[in-house]
């Protein structure tokens, strides 16, 4: 049974979460995207992780090569029909590292500056951004790490939840970033593992389009730190109901790219926004 704690004051300035770094500006989930987002001044770097055949934690949205943005290990083009045949869970990281995922500009993001880029290891992201943060003289960035897990994908595109969770948490611990990392997942199994095994970790329950929100939250065995709904489902009534029933729950919707939508959500008092264009949100906040 969920039992919300005391209400927390709403932040004066909502957090800016750079989605896959800054997908609208640089190739998604790559070092160039993360470094550019850091330079822009995001509060949180949002990224996705999958597992390679040799149990490395790889930063990637899909557990396969997306034909829209990736080339194969020999530089070959990938047809839309063949994308899932490049199953990263069946490939060692040394091979994944040879696949370029930056030169093909994503067709949905015309402002994206394409450049050669690969799928980095999570450990490499932490190391590179630690050095870059020191060079910029800015406070350490926080992380939202989405574990890409589904029941249908168990032992096909990723390990079972317990192993997946352990591999990711080991990287957070080694990099000493656990205290400023939130684990995100659409799959409640991962979040419930986190609650049982590492209750100190912040968690975010992602939800696509189901309403009312409370019915989905009540399916969990605990109350996560943050709720991440699809921004298109947000209404004033839904926010009021959420704040009333779960006053301690942080609200960070995704993926908010239109300045008009950003203004609307700011007026509703969200705690943060995940966006492909952090420059747009930062500009709004500074104005």
TrEMBL record:
One of its GO terms (biological process) is lipid metabolic process. It comes from the Bacteria. Residues 14-285 form the GP-PDE domain. One of its GO terms (molecular function) is phosphoric diester hydrolase activity. InterPro entries: GP_PDE_dom (IPR030395), PLC-like_Pdiesterase_TIM-brl (IPR017946). It comes from Hymenobacter glacialis. This is Glycerophosphodiester phosphodiesterase.
């Amino acid at each position: 049974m969920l039992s919300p704690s005391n209400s927390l004051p709403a932040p004066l300035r909502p957090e800016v979460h750079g989605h896959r770094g800054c997908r609208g500006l640089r190739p998604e989930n790559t070092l160039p995207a993360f470094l550019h987002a850091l330079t822009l001044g995001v509060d949180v770097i949002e990224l996705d992780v999958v597992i390679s055949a040799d149990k490395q934690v790889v930063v990637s949205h899909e557990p396969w090569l997306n034909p829209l943005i990736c080339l194969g290990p020999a530089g070959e083009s990938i047809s839309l029909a063949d994308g899932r045949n490049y199953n990263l869970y069946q490939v060692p990281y040394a091979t994944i590292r040879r696949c370029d995922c930056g030169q093909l500009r994503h067709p949905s993001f015309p402002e994206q500056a394409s450049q050669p880029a690969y799928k980095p290891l999570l450990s490499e992201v932490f190391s590179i951004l630690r050095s870059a943060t020191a060079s910029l003289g800015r406070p350490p960035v926080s992380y939202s790490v989405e574990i890409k897990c589904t029941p249908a994908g168990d032992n096909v595109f990723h390990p079972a939840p317990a192993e997946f969770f352990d591999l990711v948490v080991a990287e957070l611990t080694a990099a000493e970033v656990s205290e400023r990392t939130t684990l995100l997942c659409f799959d409640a199994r991962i979040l419930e593992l986190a609650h049982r095994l590492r209750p100190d970790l912040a968690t975010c329950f992602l939800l696509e389009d189901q309403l009312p929100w409370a019915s989905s939250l009540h399916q969990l065995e605990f109350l996560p730190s943050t709720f991440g709904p699809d921004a298109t489902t947000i209404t004033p009534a839904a926010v009021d109901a959420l704040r009333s029933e779960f006053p301690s729950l942080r609200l960070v919707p995704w993926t908010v790219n239109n300045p008009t939508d950003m203004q609307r959500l700011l007026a509703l008092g969200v705690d943060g926004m995940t966006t492909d264009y952090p420059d747009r949100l930062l500009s709004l906040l500074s104005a």
